[in-house]
Amino acid sequence: CETCSKEEAKYRCPRCMKYSCSLLCVKKHKLALSCNGVRDKTAFVSVNEFTDLHLLSDYRFLEDVGRTADAAARHCIVHSPATKRLLYCLRNKARGCNIELKTLPVGFTKRRENSTTFNSMENKFYWHLKLIFPHCCAEYTLKGVPDDKTLADILKPYIDPVESDPVVCQRLKIYTASPQSDVRILMKIENRNRNSVRYNELDASRSLLDNLKGKVIIEYPTLFVVLKTLKNDMVVLGE
């Protein structure tokens, strides 16, 4: 026994692997080492020591994680009437602006990410917005973007050679080195077949709200910033 060093050990702690001879010594070792006695399912095991039992343990651990995540997604707070009212209000306000806003079921990544809100006092949307720069493989997420802000102003911190952040400017130097007339802002048209994906070209001089009118949005707008001079596979509607 590693606690009293007197009696022959009968038990081994699944957590810290200490040997004990009796219930009293088990309790003493837990108190002395602040050990809870529960096996650590995430403890490191070398490849040489890895057995079928460890594989089964890992499999069951992942199943437990999946059940816990599923239970959290089904929690009553997530599906509370208040949450449903907020989503209904958001969709209704968007419809009033001639925007078809669609929301995904609980558990989808875009549903979790979306932080779009509507300010009733200002009668204004504050959008969750994603900017994708495919020529540089860069993505940026913006939160709380007012709907009356022009797309040109939204892009200034990213591709304007003077006003953009130096780190961002360096990453997006293909865009900052190109004239503004070469920049195109595209948004994917939803509800089309996979073999006929098309994009709408947006007007950088107009507000975000004006550009979103008459379009279908799933959770939040995703804008693709491309250059006319560089080849890309995005086909604009009508081309």
Number of helices: 8
Work out the oligomeric state of the chains in this entry: single chain
The major beta sheet can be summarized as: 6 strands, mixed
Q: What's the number of structural domains?
A: 2
- Poorly predicted spans: none
Radius of gyration: 28 Å
- Rounded mean pLDDT is 86
Reading off the top of the CATH hierarchy, the class of the largest domain is best stated as Alpha Beta
Name of the CATH architecture of the largest domain: Roll
Globally, the shape reads elongated
Strands, total number: 10
> Terminal Cα separation, in Å?
81 Å
Helix/strand-derived category reads alpha+beta
Percentage of residues assigned to helices: 25-40%
Q: Into which percentage range does the β-strand content fall?
A: 15-25%
Would you give the CATH topology of the largest domain?
Answer: Ubiquitin-like (UB roll)
CATH superfamily of the largest domain: Phosphatidylinositol 3-kinase Catalytic Subunit, Chain A, domain 1
The string of secondary-structure elements, in order, is EEHHHEHEEEHHHEEHEE
Subunit structure: Interacts with FBL, SNU13, NOP58, NUFIP1, RUVBL1, RUVBL2 and TAF9. Interacts (via HIT-type zinc finger) with the RUVBL1/RUVBL2 complex in the presence of ADP.
Function: Required for box C/D snoRNAs accumulation involved in snoRNA processing, snoRNA transport to the nucleolus and ribosome biogenesis.
GO biological process, one term: box C/D snoRNP assembly
Keywords: Isopeptide bond, Metal-binding, Phosphoprotein, Ribosome biogenesis, Ubl conjugation, Zinc, Zinc-finger
Notes on the structure:
The protein has 239 residues and is of the alpha+beta class. It has 2 domains: 1-40, no CATH class; 77-227, Phosphatidylinositol 3-kinase Catalytic Subunit, Chain A, domain 1 (Ubiquitin-like (UB roll), Roll), CATH 3.10.20.90. Helix content is 33%, strand content 20%. It has 8 helices and 10 strands. Strands 4, 5, 6, 7, 8 and 10 form a 6-stranded mixed beta sheet that branches. A hairpin with a 4-residue loop joins strand 4 (117-119) and strand 5. The longest helix is centred in the first third of the chain and has 22 residues, at 52-73. The chain is elongated and about 85 Å long. The model has no long low-confidence stretch (mean pLDDT 86).
